[in-house]
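Deliverable D5.2: sample structural annotation.
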Amino acid sequence: MSMERTPVRMLASVGWLGVLVMGVCACATPQLPEVSPATKRELVSGEALFGTEVAPAEPIAIQDTSPEMERFLAPLFEIDSRRERLRRLVRRLAEVGLLNARYDERLTLSAAATLEAKAGNCLSYTNMFVTLARRVGLRARFQRVAVPPTWGIDGDLLIRSNHINAVVPNMRNTGLGQEFVMDFNYVAPESSHERWLVTDAHAFALMYANLSVDALMRGQQREAFAWLKRTLIEDPDNADHWVNLGVIYARAGATDLAEAAFTLAYRMTWRRQSAMAGLATLYRQTGDTARARYYEEKIRRLRARDPFYHLAIGRAAYDKGAYEDALPSFRRAIQLRPRTGVFHFMKGLALLRLGDDKRGLRGLRMATRYGQVDDYALRYRADLEEFLEVDADDPNARTIARVSSGFDLYERPGFAETRID
């Protein structure tokens, strides 16, 4: 039985727009300030922003089971074979529509709420699967995957989304290989992508971070801080969370505390791009031109080589109707990674919008050749339907803009990484 995929969005870090006002590095490596334990306590207090210390948001019952979950799992409890229990669990998910359920990137829910609503984001669905699998005695774990991050833009926030899935390890002699991977995503991560198991605390913190970022995007500053404080209680060693804290302080004008938060993040990990983005913007706004240029140049070099960053910039222009402005970003993404379908897909759409049917259709053909674009086909369904034609010989066959074997806008693609026969 093939399994359907649900799109992914796991919001891990937030940077700012505006850091691409680049200059030539004109200084030696700048020294970052030392962050004392007292300053760190002040950072997580929130008193500097809100006048009183902010209490952390109350934890949600992330993996508590519900009567509905017990009824859902009832047929599995008496099955002895781990292989059969796993097989039946996946079948049950398919039977009730949870492998083809509604994706809402802003909806971070507990396992029980995800099952009930049949809706949520990637992290919600992954947590639901881990909870269900554990309830029937399977040792499911959360797993991070080092896929190229996707980028999104919301107002003055540049949002980097990463990837997480679920693993049931030690499945030898079951016909499933050494491990079973449940990936709620349209496109299977490539086998070459680094993967590592993470703790429940790490995954739970990501859920709280999602809630914090969503509150920040709604302009709810205190709520965002409270969720982020809960995040840091769960996982204080994830640099991304300190970057987000720096963003909150910087947006409020608390530059010293913002610098301290970005500095902590910078020193925690070698993946420093988000922390550098925060520092660059902060120094630019405070008039520290030399330091701003130093970090801006480092970011410019990193982002210049990141095709998915160029895709995000192009999409931001496209979504505003600035199709001509979007094209250079899509072309640059293709130059950096020519065999990735989504870049050709977006370039093709932009060209079609500009009336260049010949080159637009060529872009869509290239997208179908390289594949893995079904999530974008659904995101831009309305745009594609303007170019949708019905085959005269088969009125039930839908093709996009005369591209044979085009994008199916009405059915989600099958789960391609793992099969249970």
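Annotation notes: The two ends are 6 Å apart (CA to CA). The chain has 18 helices and eleven strands.
The annotation will be released with the project's public dataset once the embargo ends.
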